[in-house]
Amino acid sequence: MARTTTRTAPQPPAGAPAQPDPTAAARPGPPHTPAPGARAVSAGLACVGVLLAVGALAGGALQEFLDRMAGVFALVALSCSVMLGLATVFRDVLAPARRQLAQQLHRAAAVAGVGFLLVHIGVKVGADRVTAVQAALGFGSGSLLVDLGTLAAQLFVLALITGLWRGVFATRRWIRPFRVLHGLAYAGWLAGLVHGLGAGRAPALWVVIVYGLCAAATAAALVHRWTRTRTRTRTRTRTGNRTRRSGRQPD
User: Fold this and answer.
1) How far is residue 58's CA from residue 127's CA, in Å, rounded to a whole number?
2) Contact 83/217 with Cβ under 8 angstroms?
3) Residue 20 has pLDDT above 50, yes or no
4) 173-188 burial, b if ≥16 CB within 10 A, otherwise e?
5) Cβ-contact 75, 214 below 8 angstroms
6) DSSP classification of residue 221
7) Of all helices (H) and strands (E), which one includes residue 98?
8) Which end of the chain is more exposed for a tag (fewer CB within 10 A), N or C?
């Protein structure tokens, strides 16, 4: 009877880095929640219509209150969203659980901010401050500050849409376009800040203080992120240079 022998694959030496399995499927990118389905999209569009109608059809004391405060609430909520979005990348400051909480709060603040923004637009259209076409297109009102507010609204809506469809952009091929499109929220926030301070009636002192605090906190978060990114880039460059000089392969 013939004797059969079984050959085993050679094992790597102890301490050597694990070799990737060539038969394993390549990971397309980090896991994310799937894109909203048809029902979620329909519900979202219905909410958009309701919020615009609330602003346009409100009357009396409610209209006066929303005319004064809806834009303030929108900008404060969106400023919080921008700051929380920046905080989600601070791995050296926040633990993973806190970063996840910051990401959830970032999304909640963005939805709330865009909701107040839609009410704000509805109020202005209902009061004949701007037409529906001007509010949609972002120009033609005759005031640069008003047009800046419309531009800010468009950029924030774009950032919200790309955030909801983050799973579509999650592959390595589309992550850079996602960062560009989602990052337009920074330009929208700056345009909204200028619009809030200069358009319409003069803001109250407490509103100016709140806007200033939001601007200072967001600027500090941006500076921290920028310096952290530069530090990581320099560290990787130095590590690569040392590896090349020593003639070793990087781990």
Assistant:
1) 10
2) yes
3) no
4) eeeeebeebbeebbeb
5) yes
6) H
7) helix 96-126
8) N
CA-closest candidate to residue 159, choices 186, 193, 125, 119: 186
Q: Tokens for 61?
A: 């004391």
For tokens 């979202």, the residue is 44
pLDDT tens sequence across 236-251: 777 766 666 665 554 4
User: Is residue 10 very low, low, confident or very high in pLDDT (cuts 50, 70, 90)?
Assistant: low
Which DSSP letter does residue 30 get?
-
Could you tell me which residues come within 8 angstroms of residue 102 by beta carbon, excluding any fewer than 6 positions away?
A: 84, 87, 88, 94
Residue 19 phi/psi, 5-degree rounding, is -85, 140
What's the CA gap between 88 and 95, in Å, rounded? 10
DSSP state, residue 79: H
Q: 139: which 2 tokens?
A: 């120009």
- CA-nearest of 149, 126, 129 to 138 is 149
Alpha carbons 195 and 210: distance in angstroms, whole number: 15
Distance in angstroms (rounded) separating the CA atoms of residues 217 and 76? 12
Q: Cβ(177)–Cβ(44) under 8 Å?
A: no
Angle value at C-alpha 215, between 210 and 217, nearest 5 degrees: 95
113 closest CA partner among 25, 214, 17: 214
Give how far the C-alpha of residue 4 lies from the chain's centroid of Cα atoms, to the nearest Å.
Answer: 62
To which residue do tokens 């202005």 refer? 124
* Structure confidence at residue 51 (pLDDT): 87
Distance of CA 8 to the CA centre of its chain: 51
- Asked if residue 86 lies in contact with residue 225, where contact means CB atoms within 8 angstroms, the answer is yes
Q: Any idea how long the chain is? A: 251
